[in-house]
Amino acid sequence: MQQFLSLSFLKVIMSNSTEAKLTDSILWNAFRAGDEIAFGQIAEQYYRNLFSYGLKFSKDRELVKDCIQDLFMDLWYKRETLGDTEFVKFYLFKSLRRKIHKEILKNHWISEEDDLVFEAENIETRSVEQQIIELETNEFQIQQLKLHLDTLPKRQQEIIYLRFYENLDNEAIANVMSISRQAVANLLYRTIRELKDRL
Amino acid sequence: MNQYQHYCLEDFVLDAKFQSWVRYQQANEEDFWQSVIHNYPNLTEDINGAKTFLRSVYKRYETQLSDNELQFEIRKLVEKARQDKNLTLKGKPAVPETSHPYFLRTKSIVWMSRAAVAMFILGLGLWFWKIRPQSAYDKMTGGLSLTEKYNDTSEKQSLTLSDGTLIVLEPGSRISYPQTFSGDRREVYLSGIAFFKVSKDAKHPFFVYASELVTKVLGTSFIIKAIEKEKESTVEVKEGKVSVFRNPEVRNPGNLPGKVSGGLVLTANQKIVFEKESTQMTKTLSDSPEIVSSSKLNPTFEYKNTPVSEVFYSLENAYQVDIIFDEELLKDCPLTASLDNQTLYEKLSIICEAIGAQYELLDGQIVVQSKGCKN
């Protein structure tokens, strides 16, 4: 944690509005001072995103929830040594990935050398209701593109996810996934081109 | 808005403001992007493409989590944080880094009463200690039927044990030993400074217990300095080999339980320094290494165009120390010198000066740093 906080070159775009930033920092300072309500609000801010990301590595919702609980409790115990809020999102994603990796290793689902596999839920597992809503509101193109996303290599999918869904920049993505920034940039560019051709 | 004038699809999908519009479809953002399209109609195709692109990503990766599920998880976190805070306020010493807070809550009363008892015992111990300081030496020898020798003179005193081992005791030092050794081990207890010349008997290893250190010997000579009040204890070997361990029965408050396994082996002219406060054991060389009598008789240190690597070998032999150097680099460096009257360190300084090298002591060895002397 300390080490990562000192990596000042890492920046995560959190919010464009100054006002939101101000509220964020007030909340963050209250949390660091030991306010558990502020802590809950911060957790709430990130919860859905973390849960969604975690679920790409394990289909076990309870396991992902447990990992997120641990993750935030670690943050709570370390609150006095934490630095600025701009690194929080990046740190949480990286730590969650690591925690899930560890859990999965512990249960012998993968071997030490294997990285996690990024995989979205099967479209078929969604309720009929959801599928009808999607059919009503989305054009054929979107359906096609969604299907095409699944055919992309898992790494490319994860980069797309972190870049578009979580708004992390290339530097942060490189760190979360433990690959080079150049690799992120190349893969991202290639993926956008591929998807664009499908339009 | 001008910035978007030259945007293409790739730029739009990467733009945070654009992403947020596609994802959350807020009314004010809708107006903004409609006006962009109105002002730059040529962008319409790219904007629509980017929109479709992002929408499919968001649709594909969205996850269902009900508000109830979310609120339940958040309440759990807030509750855990509150309990942790209460524990800390009540004076629990350290914040648990990894342990589970629920565990702490249910056991906290038990723990606190245990802590109180521990404090009481500690206080009682401290009180006793103030009246009559009980040293490690006293603790170890208490209850054993041993003979004690205390040197209250101002001269060194020597004594011989039943196995023929010679001990020279410095003034103010004391040693306890059995009249006759029995069992597998020969064990003696020291407080202060003493020189030992232990009779060889491989079947009955010789142990010296001196405050925090245990020195195990097969047959050799060495000096132990273990004065209760001083910050350091040392064991210095004159000849042969000894192993030194932390004494698991002697612990300073706050120390981790001692481990017998973490021993260090000392050979001739090596020394161990044990810092009591940090419980660090460091291996180094004696302050004044001596020529080991068992090595070649009357070694001479007269060199005439001798390769410096050979010079180092002769020193290694005489003092039984390890000298680490790059043989390849130094084999062609000749040395002419007469070094009979210098100490080992003086000899090394002169040699290094001559060949443009430096030496340092590292982990009980001499390391020579040189770039070679080939021109």
Automatic annotation (TrEMBL), chain A:
Signal peptide: none annotated. Coiled coil: none annotated. It holds the Pfam family Sigma70_r4_2. Keywords: Sigma factor, Transcription, Transcription regulation. This is RNA polymerase sigma factor, sigma-70 family. GO terms for biological process: DNA-templated transcription initiation. Residues 43-109 form the RNA polymerase sigma-70 region domain. Residues 148-194 form the RNA polymerase sigma factor 70 region 4 type domain. GO terms for molecular function: DNA binding; sigma factor activity. Belongs to the sigma-70 factor family. ECF subfamily. SUPFAM superfamilies: Sigma2 domain of RNA polymerase sigma factors, Sigma3 and sigma4 domains of RNA polymerase sigma factors.
UniProtKB/TrEMBL annotation, chain B:
Residues 301-367 form the Protein FecR C-terminal domain. Residues 153-242 form the FecR protein domain. One of its GO terms (molecular function) is sigma factor antagonist activity. InterPro entries: FecR, FecR_C, Ferrdict_sens_TM. Keywords: Membrane, Transmembrane, Transmembrane helix. The chain crosses the membrane at residues 109-129. PANTHER family: PERIPLASMIC SIGNAL SENSOR AND SIGMA FACTOR ACTIVATOR FECR-RELATED (PTHR30273), PROTEIN FECR (PTHR30273:SF2). This is Ferric-dicitrate binding protein FerR, regulates iron transport through sigma-19. It comes from Pseudarcicella hirudinis.
